[in-house]
Structure formats: C-alpha cells, structure tokens
UniProtKB/TrEMBL annotation:
<protein>
    <submittedName>
        <fullName>Aminotransferase class V-fold PLP-dependent enzyme</fullName>
    </submittedName>
</protein>
<dbReference type="GO" id="GO:0008483">
    <property type="term" value="F:transaminase activity"/>
</dbReference>
<feature type="domain" description="Aminotransferase class V">
    <location>
        <begin position="18"/>
        <end position="383"/>
    </location>
</feature>
<dbReference type="InterPro" id="IPR015424">
    <property type="entry name" value="PyrdxlP-dep_Trfase"/>
</dbReference>
<comment type="similarity">
    <text>Belongs to the class-V pyridoxal-phosphate-dependent aminotransferase family.</text>
</comment>
<keyword id="KW-0808">Transferase</keyword>
<keyword id="KW-0663">Pyridoxal phosphate</keyword>
<dbReference type="InterPro" id="IPR015422">
    <property type="entry name" value="PyrdxlP-dep_Trfase_small"/>
</dbReference>
<dbReference type="InterPro" id="IPR020578">
    <property type="entry name" value="Aminotrans_V_PyrdxlP_BS"/>
</dbReference>
<dbReference type="Pfam" id="PF00266">
    <property type="entry name" value="Aminotran_5"/>
</dbReference>
<dbReference type="InterPro" id="IPR000192">
    <property type="entry name" value="Aminotrans_V_dom"/>
</dbReference>
<dbReference type="InterPro" id="IPR015421">
    <property type="entry name" value="PyrdxlP-dep_Trfase_major"/>
</dbReference>
<keyword id="KW-0032">Aminotransferase</keyword>
C-alpha cells in the first residue's frame, strides 16, 4: 500500500487533522469528489438525461466494481441510497404473514431492530434474538436450536455492529442457513470497505452496505447484493417501479432479471459515479491489504487505550476497526473535549443506539474511534499520548 499517495489523495487531511471517524462518515479520495463535480457540471450544461446517456458505460462500471469488491456478478448488485434503503427493499421483498419468525441477534443495528419491531407490531411477526456466548461470540448452537423450533422465515445478522468492535461469524451462520434452507440477510454496512467481504463465503441471500463509511464514497449512496437463488425465485421489492419491471399488459408486468429490479428509476447519477470511483479506489488498493493494515491500527489503538487505563468495551474473539471505550470511571465528556481540542475526529454512541448491548455492559455510552487505511501508526501513537495526558 502506498500510504503517502493515499494520503495525498485526501484534500481533507491538509489541515493536519487526525481523522478517526470512518465508521461514521469517512473522507473521500479527491477523485470521488472531482468525478461528482464534473458530472453535475455537465448536467448543468446539457441536462441529466443527456449526461446519463453519454456516460452509460462508465456508470455501468459501478456494478462491475462492486461485484469485484464482494465476489459476485454485476447482475447481483443494485444501487441504493443508503444501507437502510437497501435493507428496507430486501425486507419488503419477503412476504411476511402473521406468526412468521425472524431470528436476529442482540447486536444488530438499531434501525434493523426498529424495523423488526415494526413488523412485529403491524404484522404480528415474531422476533427472536439468539444468545451470545460468554466471550460475546454468537451462540451457533442456540441459533440452530431456534431454527429447529421455530422454522424461521428469515435470519438477519449485522456483520459488524455500529457500537462495538465485534465481527460476527457470518460465514458460520451462512452454513446453518444453507443447511436449513432459511433466507439470510446480512447487514455489512460497517464491514464493506473495512475488510474483505465475500458473499460466496458468507452464503447470504441479501447483503446491504452504505457508501459514506469505510467505502469512502459520498453520502446518499449504498448498495444491495441479491443472490441468484433469490432473483430466480422472483423476489422483488413490494413497491417496485419501472426500473424493476416491464409493463407488458394492462394488469401485468414482467420482472427484469437482474438485481437492478431492487432500484428505483430515479437516482442521483452523480452520486452513483462517486460511489463507483470510491469502490474502484478500494479495489485498486486491495481489500486484503486494507484489512491487514486496519487490524494493525486498531489492535495498536486498543492495546494503548487499555494500557493507559481506559475501559475498552470491545468484546469478542475477532475484533474490527471500531474501537469503543470510556474513561476509567465511565467518563465520556472529558474525552470528547480533549479530542475536539486536538483536531481529532471521533464519534459517540449512547445507550439508545445499542440498547441491549449497553444494558448488558451496564454503560450509558462509548466514545468510538474508527481508524482506516489512510491513518498512520504515528497518528495512533499521538492520539494515545494526548489521551494519556488527559487522565
Ligand atoms: C451496522 C449498521 N447498519 C446500518 C447502518 C445504516 O446505514 P445508513 O445510514 O447508510 O442507512 C449503520 C449506520 O451507522 C450501521 O452502522
């Protein structure tokens, strides 16, 4: 990895900030921003339809680059305006009936939990959460027993939760889903762009991701992966439009074959162009390189924080580039003040965003630092030193 070049490609780093909020919204490479500005400037001149026609081939590269990123075919990819948009469309394609069961985890993302509860309230769907083992890993035996007992319609797992360093063993869950032939939805919002994500290995039917976090794309972008199995079974969003189907008869339509049937016709092509460039950039750097380097950064940071005396709340055998901690006596305020004063970018998560996890941990919130491959070990040491002096 050419770290100097990678850092030169980020205009946002020119003021000396230390940017450690990649799990929130990362810094885009200059090519991502420039491609979007160029695109909109062309739209200003000739109108959006003309620019889309002229750029049709380049825009298609979005599907090829994303397919390369997660190891599938271009026909399995749909553009989305966010991870939540992708998630909602995937869920809407499953026709839930009263009594149907969704199995999820205690660490799944707040919005996923809310949408499941909404389905519970509106359709009388039953939501069951698997147990965690004492080391905070998913209890796969419990999951298998729940499948046997409830014959669920869907299993939904967040690969990397927003609020802890955990990486869930989504591959092991995938094997169980295959064995029992259950639909499997993976929220990879925090893992795509941060580490290698391989849908073949995971064995999921749907996978959702966002653009602005570890992918380093623009806001208002994301994507949905839809497996061939699910496409062949004619799954499509409940509220699809002319992007999803051909209107063949007064009262009938024919679904289009590819995952694009999960898109809406109108999208921001400038944003799609930006996400395409971000994905191309990640592919060029190489996801394995990015993953290995991110591990080094986060392990170093976690070790330093523990040694200094902070409480690090990441629990699990396999931890990610999301580092969560608080002061020795639970303090969040002073840490935030010190980080802000030193031009260090971070975020804070409070209990309402991680209700089950933080209730179990008996904490009200955490400070989150999320390094990414453009950060340096020197930056990690500097932040650690600043925090050490704040105690
Ligand atoms: C694990 C996880 N899933 C889903 C989302 C939602 O992503 P978006 O805001 O792009 O819909 C987030 C956002 O923080 C997240 O961390």
């Amino acid at each position: 990895m050419k770290l100097d070049k990678i850092r030169q490609d980020i205009r946002g780093l020119s003021d000396g900030k230390i940017f450690l909020n990649n799990a929130g919204s990362s810094l885009m490479p200059s090519i991502v921003v420039d491609s979007m500005i160029d695109y909109v400037e062309l739209e200003e001149q000739v109108g959006g339809y003309e620019v889309a026609n002229v750029n049709a081939e380049v825009l298609e590269e979005f599907y090829d680059e994303t397919a390369k990123l997660i190891n599938c075919k271009s026909s399995n990819i749909a553009f989305a305006t966010s991870a939540t948009d992708a998630y909602a469309k995937a869920l809407s394609s499953i026709i839930f009936k009263e009594g149907d069961v969704i199995i999820t985890t205690v660490d799944d993302y707040i919005s996923n939990q809310i949408v499941f509860i909404s389905l519970q309230k509106k359709l009388n769907v039953k939501v069951i959460r698997t147990k965690n083992l004492s080391d905070n890993e998913l209890d796969l035996e419990d999951l298998e027993n729940l499948i046997k007992e409830y014959n669920p319609k869907l299993i939904a797992v967040t690969h990397i939760p927003t609020n802890s360093g955990l990486i869930q063993n989504v591959e092991a869950v995938g094997k169980i889903c295959k064995q029992y032939d259950v639909l499997y939805l993976v929220d990879a919002c925090q893992s795509v762009g941060q580490m290698v994500v391989d849908v073949e290995k995971i064995g999921c039917d749907f996978l959702t991701a966002t653009g602005r976090k570890f992918m380093r794309g623009p806001r208002g972008t994301g994507f949905l992966y839809v497996s061939d199995k699910v496409l062949d079974q004619n799954y499509a969003p409940l509220l699809l439009d002319m992007r999803g189907a051909n209107w063949t008869e007064f009262d009938d339509y024919e679904l289009f074959k590819t995952a694009k049937r999960f898109e809406h016709w109108e999208i921001s092509y400038a944003s799609l162009m930006g996400l395409m460039q971000a994905t191309k950039y990640a592919n060029a750097v190489g996801m394995k390189n990015i993953e290995d380097y991110n591990k080094k950064l986060s392990q170093k940071l976690r070790r330093n924080l523990k040694n200094i005396g902070f409480k690090v709340w990441d629990q699990g055998n396999n931890l990610s580039s999301i580092v969560t901690f608080c002061g020795p006596d639970g303090d969040l305020e002073n840490i935030q003040k010190v980080l802000k004063n030193n031009n260090i970018f971070f975020s804070v998560t409070y209990k309402n965003s991680a209700l089950i996890d933080f209730t179990n941990k008996n904490i009200n919130g955490i400070v989150r630092l999320s390094p990414h491959y453009f950060n340096t070990i020197e930056e990690i040491e500097k932040v650690s030193e600043i925090l050490k002096n704040s105690l």
